[in-house]
Write a structure and sequence with these properties.
- The chain is α+β, with helices and mostly antiparallel strands.
- Strands 3-2-1-4-5 form a five-stranded antiparallel beta sheet, with no helix packed on it.
- A hairpin with a 2-residue loop joins strand 1 and strand 2.
């Protein structure tokens, strides 16, 4: 009976250790794959609204365009976006994945937006 209890206890400990090790291995793989994703945040100011196309400029001077309901956007709005770099180093092929309103800039501050 003692041998059976020791065997069951050993089996339980082994199972627990295996489960915990597997959990951390999976979490580590997920974390490292998330670090290699091609998404990044960007904040820009709306400079132009035409039909279904919104044009924005970032403070570093990069210009992006995305399609959206233009009735919700006006020039001077601040736009927070999730961008996809498509796995390339060049910023010129980056795509706006998601855009959200984040505030606005006064008319006299619009010229100061790009640094």
């Amino acid at each position: 009976m003692k041998k059976l209890m020791k065997f069951i206890a050993l089996l339980g400990v082994t199972t627990t250790i295996t489960a915990v090790a597997s959990y951390f291995a999976v979490c580590t793989v997920k974390a490292s794959s998330m670090c290699n994703q091609s998404f990044y945040p960007e904040t820009c100011m709306v400079t132009q609204v035409n039909k279904d196309l919104v044009t924005v400029i970032c403070q570093n001077g990069n210009i992006f365009k995305f399609e959206d309901n233009t009735e919700e956007w006006i020039e001077g709005d601040i736009c927070s976006m999730i961008m996809d770099n498509k796995g390339t180093v060049s910023v010129y092929d980056d795509k706006v994945v998601s855009a959200r309103y984040s505030g606005y800039v006064n008319d006299d501050e619009m010229d100061k937006w790009v640094k």
